[in-house]
Amino acid sequence: MPGFGVAFLLVLLLGLLAPFVLYYLISAETADQQTLDRADAERVARQDDPPDEGG
């Protein structure tokens, strides 16, 4: 039965820790967002769009 207690504690800790890890990862990903006005955003969107290939 000691194995059950250890397993239960491990699952409990993972369940409590996982939301904090996810929150940290999401906040780190969105920390350095670039703010653009409409004209700059359209220019960036056009640069990301591959040119049409005739066909």
Write the layout of secondary structure elements.
Layout (H helix, E strand, L loop, with lengths): L1 H28 L8 H11 L7
Protein name: Cytochrome oxidase maturation protein, cbb3-type
Organism: Salinirubrum litoreum
Keywords: Membrane, Transmembrane, Transmembrane helix
Keyword list:
mainly alpha; elongated; 55 residues; 71% helix; DUF8143; 2 helices; 0% strand
Task: Offer a quick outline of the entry.
The chain crosses the membrane at residues 6-26. With 55 residues, this protein is mostly helical.
Walk me through what this model shows.
InterPro entries: DUF8143 (IPR058456). The structure is a single chain. The protein has 55 residues and is mainly α. Helix content is 71%, strand content 0%. It is built from 2 helices and no strands. The model has no long low-confidence stretch (mean pLDDT 86).
Oligomer: single chain
Strand content: under 5%
- From the spread of the alpha carbons, the general shape counts as elongated
Q: How many helical stretches?
A: 2
Mean pLDDT: 86
Instruction: Give the low-pLDDT segments.
Output: none
